[in-house]
Amino acid sequence: MFGANPFWYYLTVFFEGTVFVYGIMLLLLYAMLAVMSFLNIQLYQKKESYTDYKVVVGSPLAPGISVIAPAFNEGLTIIDNVRSLLTFDYPKYEVIIINDGSTDDTLSKVCEEFSLVKVDFAYNIKIQTKEVRGIYKSTDDAYAKLVIVDKENGKAKADATNAGINASSFPYFLCTDVDCILHEQTLSKLIRPVLEEDKKRVIATGATLRIANSCDIDKGVITKIRAPRPFLARFQEMEYIRAFVLGKMGWSLINAVPNVSGGLGMFDKEIVIKAGGYDAASFGEDMELMMRMNRYCYDNKIPSAIRYIPATLCWTEGPTSLKIFMRQRTRWGRGLIQLVLAHRKMFFNPRYGIVGLVMFPYNFIFEFLAPVIEFLGIIYYILLIIFGQVNWPYAIILLIFVYTYSIMISTIAVLWDHLTSKYYKDWMDVVRVASMVFIEMILYHPLIVIFALRGYIFFLTNRKHSWGNMQRKGFKKSEAKPATA
Amino acid sequence: MWKVFYDLLLQAYEQFGYQPLFIKIALAFIFIAVFATLIAYIVILVRRWRAYIHDKRLASITPKIEDLITEEVLLNEKLGIEPVDEIEFNQDAITDKIYKQKWVRQAMIDILISYRKNFRGEVGDLLRKLYIDMNLTKDSFDKMKTLRWEKKIRAVMELTQMDIQISDVTILPLTNSSNSSLRAAARNAYIQLSKNEPFKFFDIATEPLLPWDQLDMFKIITTTKDIQIPNFSRWVSYSTNKSVVSFCLKLIAYYDQQSAIPAVMELLNNKDHYFRADAIACLGKLSAEATEPKLIKIYEHQPLICQIEILKAIGQIASGRNLEFLKQELAYSANFDIRMNAARAIISHGTEESKAIVDELLETSYDENKLIIKHCLNPLIK
């Protein structure tokens, strides 16, 4: 096509060569992750086969954990949400709900339901946040674990979480969203990797998240796990399984986990505070915090680790409207470009060990650059078609290759998920999720690419971001079956 | 039809050789990907099917096993009349051919263990006898011989829960295994099964006692009946294994071993400040009044973690001799956590003198310190 002009000719050769190497590296990386995650899941399953978590429940040696959950205008569901968070099987924990300047009746509802009164609380500002207006505790002993922090709206979850960290009294904290539904053994299961590590300080642990949209939920407790019925949510379920069970479990084996999800993660409070807490100006505050915690540990020569477990411990409501989904993924895209630029000094920097040599380059090359390369690839392909330069038999073979490979990787993720636990009781749910792998590449993946690029463009053009509301629909309540005689 | 298919394959094979390398690789990967995907789906199906069958079989066998246990153990007429060792089971029932199947025997072991957790005394002993008479010990000991560590752990746990002796030659090396899970299970078993020296492995332990394993071990030590509790200061003084010493400090505090105070005090000179913090916490829990002067003396040069532990310890000892020191720390320390812990320590004294100091500080302190005191006084904040 560009043969007549040497500049275009060499550019074409360079582009094709780069994309070829990039593609091969990506495929090999996924194959490697599949193997590493398998080994890690096997190890986890072996340990789970004889572990009795009741031992933790009765132990005076279990470390205290603060559960931090910010809430903004959650008046409709807040009571069930708080009740759900108060049901952990763990001996020493507190639940800190941060009312992030809600304009609805969130605070009054909670105060009334849980007999809360404002207390003289010595709030220690270790991380700067918007002003805290008051702290509430219950006069009812049954809710002694509950703390409500009422603060001015900080326009970011990060600011609210930081206020929760300031008010917390235990050395570890679990960061979640107030409407997330957590497994009752979440605290025991997430603290285990921390207490099992001898030579390194485990600074964060995470577990798998799933989409709760079609699950049956009663008073904040999941009564039946189902695959989401709406297509968009089901695609996300598939994406989460692949990202957590295959991706993060694989990275966890070599201590190169790039991110602990904001929906569910347990953190070492001391390191978080020393690293400066969550950045309220970041669009990907969870990923950004992990990077700073890693940097802090390397700079201070603290041998550290981030661990993941394959068990699903958190169910969250996934966006079902394309508009909200677009807003979420655009924000993630902005967060990624922010992160890459802010921590560029870590790129292939041996001073930061595996984080600098593997984790950060992976984030840059295969997370940040992927949408750009894919987009350019499509443009290039279209040009080749226009100029009649496509060798169709070969092009089709290569397309089938990429398609079948992506199906294989996603199917392996579904299988690995099955090795962990049989979450779906109904086999039709397995079919529903597994069927997504065949159309994901055609329908869902292009959306991810477009929204990520939108995020990059918004960042580069410094476009103002509106956080917006997630506009949750709430969960389906399980219907009580009539008693049989 | 087969001929057409065969010809097509042959044609494809012949053409394959003429393709460029990257197409050859792509074709090979397509074949691998399709094959691997199919295998993955088959494995998912098979696993779900096997789990379904296993659940179904288990649901059918469980009532039979429970009936056997009810008849032979719970409702055994000889129970309480004859010594447990002399009670004979119905041989026809326990040698039924159904109990020869491996999975049934494993189900039997699991159910017996769950019953034994709920029944002690003679019923517990008779459950144990049933386990022995059905020769289930062999199944557990066979598992001990495998190379798979998770199976070994299951075996150790089964034998321990059924109170079956494992020889020192077998179990002691496992207490220092490089596999942390196996090591923890073996250590827990040793404590429960060894009648004379349950803590002997502390002497040879070079591998760490992980905090996760300490949870289980602490529970076993503090709940197992008739266990001989030694003076843990022995390991505080002589063990080179830091995790063992740290665990012993917790046990010393739990069993209020006052005689261990001198040994614990020696640790105040240790270079590891986390270790010193553990020792100070232990002295506080022991209410070791004699150590107060030493704690005050070293306070100034300690890192924050140790200073906080010293303040807590002084609050727990509550001799009243260091109220002025605590007052000074609350009034003048720049560190929030120090002031908070100093306030708590003053309040925990609960004497007239400490109450007077609290009242005075509430009147004279600046706003933040007043808030700290109010925070510590509020019963709603724990």
Describe this structure in words.
The complex is a heterodimer of chains A (485) and B (382). Chain A is 51% helix and 16% strand. By secondary structure, chain A is α/β, with parallel strands linked by helices. Chain A has one domain. In chain A, the strands form 2 sheets. A 10-stranded mixed β-sheet of chain A has the order 3-4-5-2-1-6-11-8-12-7, with helices on both faces. A 3-stranded mixed β-sheet of chain A has the order 10-9-13, with no helix packed on it. In chain A, helix 10 packs across helix 11 (353-386), helix 10 crosses helix 13 (427-460) and helix 12 (392-420) packs across helix 13. The radius of gyration of chain A is 23 Å and the shape is globular. Chain B is mainly alpha-helical and 382 residues long. Chain B has a domain at 1-134. Chain B is built from 21 helices and no strands. Chain B is extended, with a radius of gyration of 32 Å. At the A-B interface, helix 1, helix 6, helix 12 and helix 13 of A face helix 2, helix 7, helix 9, helix 11 and helix 19 of B.
